[in-house]
């Protein structure tokens, strides 16, 4: 038999290879072997009928928190990947220099899906909820360099939380993050949330090829002024080749910010979830300290109430397809939505030709989905509603040439209470 697996009759979308329209995808072992019209069913041991479905390369989620059991934020990549068709992930700073080896041993090596890491500039990473940058000694460049150089195959950049959640008292972590990234020749992924620092100061540390995440935030580091006009520093970053990532999370998609930026032509380049223990339950986070979606973070170092209530039924409500639904609703064409979840992130992760495309020779990661039509209420993190007409539902996922069976996501950790219905 010529092939092991044949995905037949699907509507292919592959912006990198330029495939568009009804084609068949053949797999031999763990690689894509051929993409063509009318590959005979009898040429493969197993055939998946993908008629009336869209078929893309396995999706890539470049911003999630996957160090489950070791950090406040960690969720299970295999479970979510199996429900959303996400076969490649990048963790955004859960591990720092001290914990990267553990992230590799206990998560990366044990997961079915492929995981890469943006390493936190703070050596402790995101073990606790916040304040990883409070102690300047944790931003240790020499230590970071020596650890990264032992794990070059999994490290894709340096993660930094500019803004109050990181807890930095000054710009030292930003300075050290910049220096470490330059010396290691890796990009920075910089998170935008609550000032200080202000947006302009934060962006002065970013170079072309770096990533900004939470680009459509409505928080105080947002990229627009009060009239909705893009700020000069943001405009410059966008035009200078900084890569703009969505990073939905539970604090970072404001429809107002997104619509203002989109109306001026500023589309994000990469769609990602910022999935973690709170955002996985959807946009409606209820913070006992304040209200939905707008966390008040004390800056005086007081102990915080870290017990969070989130709305939901305990089942995951947010994953990459949910965020893709929202981008379709905001007017991003389907082909661009697929580009922003396949070839663009693959390029950033240095996986061009390996993942994010169905080109023969690439890894046999394939996602099938259907687009249901209707009227769908979509929420941003401030509780604002838009009505989408399309809903993407995963129909099958092939990982490394084999079907990825659905896995239930485990219950939330004790510090997250789900089921608040107020
Ligand atoms: Zn994040």
Features:
18 strands, alpha/beta, 10 helices, Urease, subunit C, domain 1
List the bound ligands.
Answer: zinc ion
Low-confidence stretches: 287-305
What CATH architecture of the largest domain do you see? Alpha-Beta Barrel
How many strands, what sense, and barrel or not for the largest sheet?
8 strands, mixed
Q: Which geometry do the CA atoms define?
A: globular
Provide a count of the helices: 10
Number of E-type strands: 18
According to CATH, the homologous superfamily of the largest domain is: Metal-dependent hydrolases
Task: Give the overall average pLDDT.
Answer: 90
Q: Structural class from helices and strands?
A: alpha/beta
What string gives the helices and strands in order? Answer: EEEEEEHEHEHEHEHEHEHEEHHHEEEE
The fold-level CATH name of the largest domain is TIM Barrel
The count of domains is: 2
How much β-strand is present in the residues? 25-35%
Report the end-to-end length measured between terminal Cα atoms. Answer: 59 Å
Level of helix content? Answer: 10-25%
Describe the structure.
With 422 residues, this protein is α/β, with parallel strands linked by helices. It folds into two domains: 3-57 and 354-372 and 390-403, Urease, subunit C, domain 1 (Roll); 59-348, Metal-dependent hydrolases (TIM Barrel, Alpha-Beta Barrel), CATH 3.20.20. The protein has helices at residues 77-84, 100-108, 141-148, 172-184, 199-203, 232-239, 255-263, 320-329, 334-339, 343-348; strands at residues 3-14, 19-28, 31-36, 44-49, 54-57, 59-64, 86-92, 114-120, 155-161, 188-191, 211-213, 243-245, 285-286, 308-310, 366-379, 385-399, 402-403, 416-418. Strands 1, 2, 3, 4, 5, 15, 16 and 17 form an eight-stranded mixed beta sheet that branches. The protein has a seven-stranded parallel beta sheet with strand order 6-7-8-9-10-11-12. Helix 3 (141-148) packs parallel to helix 4. The chain is globular. The model is unreliable at 287-305 (pLDDT under 50). The protein binds zinc ion. Zinc ion is lined by residues 63, 65, 92, 247, 249, 274.
